[in-house]
Design brief:
The structure holds two protein chains of two kinds. By secondary structure, chain A is of the alpha/beta class. Helix content of chain A is about 50%, strand content about 10%. In chain A, helix 3 links the parallel strand 1 and strand 2. The N and C termini of chain A lie far apart (about 40 Å). By secondary structure, chain B is an alpha/beta fold. The longest helix of chain B is centred in the C-terminal third of the chain and has 32 residues. Classes of the chains: A alpha/beta, B alpha/beta.
Amino acid sequence: VTVLDSTVQHCRELLDLLPREALDQARLGHPGLEAFAIFPVYAPQEIIHAAGLLPMGMFGVGNKMETMHADSRFQSFICSIAKSTLELFLREELHGFQGAVFSSICDVARNLSSVASRNAPGLYIDYLHLPQSAATLPARDYTRSEFARFRENLADRMGAAISDEAIRRSIALYNRMRQLIGQLYQHRREHPGTIGAAELFAVVQAGTRMMPEDFIPLLESLLDDIATRKPLVRDSVRVVLEGSFCEAPPLELIEAIEAAGCQIVDDDLAIGWRIFRDDVPTAGDPVANLADAYLASSVYTSVRHDSRLPRTEGLLQRVKESGAEAVIFAAAKFCEPALLDYVLFRRTLDDRNIPHLKLEFEEKMWTFERLRTEVETFTESMLFD
Amino acid sequence: MPAPDSTAQTVPLTTPKPARTPPPPAPDKDYRGVVHDLSRNVMTDWMNQLQEAARTGAPSAYLMVSGNCVEILRCFDILPVFPEINALQLAIRKKALPYILKAEEIGYASDNCAYVKADIGFTMSGGVGKDGLTPTPTLIVCNFVGCNVYIKWFEQCAAMMDVPLAMIDVPFIRQDEQVRPEDVRYVMAQLEQLIATCESITGRKFDIDRLREICAYSARAEEGWARAKDLCKHRPAPYDCYFDSINMMGPINALRGTKEAADFFDAAVAHYEEMVARGMGAIDEEKFRIVVEGPPPYPYYRNFRNLFERWKAVAVQSTYSTVGGTWEFGFRHDPKRPLESIAEQMLTHNLCNRTMQERYRQIRHYVEGWSADALVIHSVKSCRLFSAGQGDMREYFTKELGIPTLMVESDLEDPRYYAEAQMRNRIDAFFESLQYKRIRESAATSVPATTA
């Protein structure tokens, strides 16, 4: 068994757990550890970590838990991540969690935050209004104040101040984590076949359920291992996967896309956990640094308006930098930001003759044959045209 | 959308129901009263101005209804254009579907907001521009107040028409927290940027005294709005605060800040006061008083209204009427602090920028203060800002407060989601149970009196 195999196996097992069970795993190395949930897309993990908590990504519950109560709170036309997340609250599944943070990504997430808070007495639920603007001076002051507010609220909850020094240490750890993930992506692009897209995503997503102290060595050994593996070049279409920035697509969907003849060279999966283009500076006011980084040096996402870098430009850049030949939109069913963005993305790609394909998924889906056939038809039309 | 289960009414009946006797259909009533005519006059003037601007190219700007800064545009004589109002007008005239389908051709999903689709389809079909009904805007002002779809909608408009977009990012009011000074400063700074943009578009200097005058007109209209809504506390209510509110929503949302809107409200309030003094109600014999949550099904506005009218049910309050502003809670634009008050209104004093729990409080206040018998939730697929989580709202009102609550589903724009028969079944079953509950309660109170 290689390091790659055992690592991916470990990560897949971690993803199969409910959040509180994943916390139990983290407690093996950190006795008494408590967690704090981050609903996609982004929240400053460093502040949570500096408060001595495990910042845990909430990407939906997949098919690990049946929705029994949340269906009556959220209608049939609401995305499944909202329901499965609320289900966790209604079932009081978040033992060991201090609370959760949501942000201004869409109307559903915003309402979910309020509904979750009503149904989760005892938990601290916060809502971040992340700026929908370019990096202007007023936006900078505002974003700094919003992150500072979160820090104060969390400190109040924990009954202890969160020191600058602790946040700086956390920033350094998360910088390292983001660098290593970036290197994995880079290595995969340059050496196709050394690690599958589903394997990579399993690792990255599982990382949102680990303390960075534990995740970093895992990433380091994984990088060492795949560096020794021989690339496996096969006929395939290099694609960017776009639109899965919130609810996590099933790993089987990623596998189906690659099995159907695509090589995913970049994506927006778990994008909030690798959002910064550069390291966040540790010197100076660490909270201000995080806010500035979000505003001025984060990658584009479908949940932010930035007049200086429209998302259409961002996508073209992502395609160009990764050397992709096509784009696959994989949007969660009922995901309003992704489905609305598709219209402008499609027009932009059509204007430049970049082929694209749109898919919709749900976290509870279990058959992937139809999607695989769609992707196969798409790749064949490119490979044999 | 799945068929609503007509047996799953929210008011449980523990004793057998009497034989079902649905009321006769509502008479084909003409709802166009005095206030409707007043409203139509001022709105027609505005629409004529829009068409005129389409031809002349006079400065105009797109703006969203919820928590907006129309006063600033008026200060520069920039004509406001509201794509939401255009979309709802298409729906109420039963013209929306072809435009919705047209937008779906360019990639909009069937699950996307149909307001957006109708407006985009309408624009693609030549409805906007020189030969259209509304002008190609000089500027697109995206007042991001609550609804995230606004951003995507206006980004698309800006890209389609190649018009500059000015984003006004308004922080959402967080759970249990008041607006913070940092939020106000952030919005104020963006309003100042908008003023600079308006100056460069029009070549005119900003005149704060003009803005004060405009804010005074806004405040007068807002005061009229609050007084009109207060009158619905009377029995019978002089107008239906859901269906007839549309007559007041046009002037308060599209024309706020004008003398015409202020005058309209003075006249409307005088008319409603007279109705109250004479004991006249929106319906002849008011039997049920309801609060309605959620936007109406515009493509079937009259049909939907009749389903309540036949039970002699009148809406005494509604949340939808407060998307532009929650004026009945006391906020007024302040000529002494024009910019600050505009920023505060955008931040806090409108339904869209507040949490679901804050909306529960608003509805509870309505039910108690306006003596309502029940809550009706119209859940629309298009608008997740309104609808996401309304099941929890129903849970709260029925289980925790014991207020009879009915939830029905359709859409505000897309006619394909309105199923009249199912809707009627649900509404009939609900009012039947309310009626039966009343009979039971009055029997229970009269029995001891006769046996004592």
